[in-house]
Amino acid sequence: MAAVISAVLGNDDILREILLRLDFPTCLVRAAAVSTRWLRHASDPALLRRFARLHPPRLLGCFIHSSDFPLRFVPLPQQPPELAAVIRRGRFDFGRGAGNVSDCRNGRIIVFVMPENGMPGEDTLFCPLLPGRGTAVIQNPQISAQPCAILGYYSTEFLFHDGGGGGMSVSAVTVMRSERQAWVRIQDLQAGVWGEGRSSDMIQLPATWHRCENFALLANGKLYMICMVQYILAIDVASMSSTCIRLPDGVQCGYDANLALSSAEGSGFCLAHVKKLQMQVWCYSMDCRNIGNWRLIDTINLHKVFARFADRTWASFGAIVRVHALGDNADFVFLRIQNKVLYLDMSSRKVEKMSDLKRFVLPELCSFLVEMDEKFGVTYLDYLSPSQ
Amino acid sequence: MEVDKGKGEAEETRKVAEADRDTVTLKSSDGKLFEVSKEAAARLSTVLAGMIAGGSIDDNGTDLKQIGSEALENVVDYCNKHANSIPSAALISSSISFNTAPFKEPEEWERKFVDRLSHDALFDLVEAANFLGMERLLDVTCHKISEMMKGKSPDQIREVFNIKNDYTKEELEEIRQELAWAFYDD
Q1: Could you tell me if residue B175 is inside a domain?
Q2: Would residue B174 count as lying in a domain?
Q3: Do the domain assignments include residue A283?
Q4: Helix H or strand E segment including A161
Q5: Is B121 in CB contact (< 8 Å) with chain A?
Q6: Chain A contact for B120, CB < 8 A?
Q7: Do A384 and B127 touch (CB under 8 A)?
Q8: Chain A within 8 Å of B46 (Cβ-Cβ)?
Q9: Among B124, B145, B167, whose Cβ lies nearest the Cβ of A36?
Q10: What is the CB neighbour count within 10 angstroms for residue B170?
Q11: Which of A130-139, A321-330, B24-33 reaches the highest mean pLDDT?
Q12: From B143, B157, B172, residue closest to A31, measured CB to CB
């Protein structure tokens, strides 16, 4: 028996095909611990790239923060045992002072934490799935260059994005603006220090600045900001050139309508627009002549898909639905209706209730996503690779 | 090995005996002869397709010296079953295989086909599929082997596949520490 098994598993090509078919990064890591030869294959960058494409990131759950309780993690129900085990070993408690989340991606999260000793709060980076890695405080970046015009308002966001080298990078987006002008600076965090960064020219806005809830997205080399009722400001990260993308007809952000962005495979982005109990999902991409196009990819009657959770008062009181987060490629969405936080899988239309909040919910509630993907594997297997 | 022969398959075999041109005869390393649908063989195996196109098929049995009779029987069985099954939309489009496309999950009958194999027979079949350039069969069998690793610790994987641990104690400890998230609490 041993002969044929060792002949098959001794064949590098076949071994790699088998490794590629393992369901989860956790399985790949355990396989790497079988022997040094298996580690060599499992940590090969070409194999990891293929593995990453074949096994897209998995959604583990979301963070919910409201006036009732500090930030807490709510796992998605019915996880496969492999992911349930990962969640069980994670540490999601960031203390009682944990509040607003800047961004959360690929198992990393930036949370604003107020220390209990009354010291000023700090933006802190956690890796809840890797509790052994500790935390890092993220300082606000220093802005050396200033725009020439006087702009009254100032804000900084921290966003994760795919750094290209396999890991996640953190960027700081600083916006200074007046009503119809904006200036944007993007800086990258490198080894704990903010780089000099790049600035836009003074951007003349086609409409009045109006900041929406799910403000910014950094994806495919572009920064997108929902900062006008009917426009998205898009900035090319490399050249810092800007364009304003007009939203499709009938889509706008307002009191009873809100938007969320997510990255789309390859280029462009996805947009979810919720108004009353209707949701539209759009995809924005560039055609071969470099002209942007909107494409409506889905329309969902939320009352219908939420049947099981729907409440008679929704229709009569004109319930407002908030879209809190949209998954990459619009695979899923987190919504809040009154006191319920609901997860909706777009393709299956399956709904899960994530949370029932107390009656009074302040609008600061936010849900953020924790995903586990290959990048743990990439980073760590690279590090352990004996070929170095 | 006893194989359930569907009605369609039995008919196919009879037809084959009457008119030889729809099938090819393959000869295992231990001299046994197997008939397989020419169309399915050419579609599923790049090596057999090359031999058929190149005219190097022997009517008295094309020698496949690297493949034992048990594995060859499974190969032939797979080809015939494949020829008889109604391919799903996923499989029809599989002729264009994108590197980025997710793996096509084994069909129900393919799953059953590999599930009934013994450990040895499965690995023999992987070797045969690899030798014959049968991408889909390799896909299905590799999928089965990867499933056998599911939920297992490195120790258990080594035991199942009889692999020698060549890590030092320190190296293994380092991996366990650095990659704790991937290991069970054992």
Answers
A1: no
A2: no
A3: yes
A4: strand A153-162
A5: no
A6: yes
A7: no
A8: no
A9: B167
A10: 8
A11: B24-33
A12: B157
Residue B156 sits at the chain A interface (C-beta within 8 Å): no
Which value does ipTM take for this structure?
A: 0.80
Matching residue, tokens 């603006």: A177
Q: B84-124: per-residue pLDDT in tens?
A: 765 544 444 443 333 445 567 788 899 999 999 999 999 99
Give chain A's length.
Answer: 388
CATH number at residue A319: 2.120.10
Residue A105 lies in a domain: yes
The conformation of residue B161, written as its DSSP 8-state character, comes to H
Q: Are the Cβ atoms of B143 and A21 closer than 8 angstroms?
A: yes
Query: What are the structure tokens assigned to B74, written together?
Result: 């499974």
The CATH number of residue B27's host domain is: 3.30.710.10
Question: Would you say residue B164 lies in a domain?
Answer: no
Q: What is the pTM of this model?
A: 0.77
Residues A101-158: pLDDT tens digits?
Answer: 888 877 788 888 988 888 889 999 888 877 777 788 998 888 766 776 677 788 888 8
Helix ranges (H only) for chain B are 7-18, 38-44, 46-53, 69-84, 89-92, 108-115, 119-131, 135-149, 154-161, 169-178
Does B123 contact A33 at a Cβ distance shorter than 8 Å?
no
- Supply the range of the domain harboring residue A272: 58-372
Say which residue the tokens 């990891």 belong to.
A48
Q: Are residues A19 and A77 in the same domain?
A: no
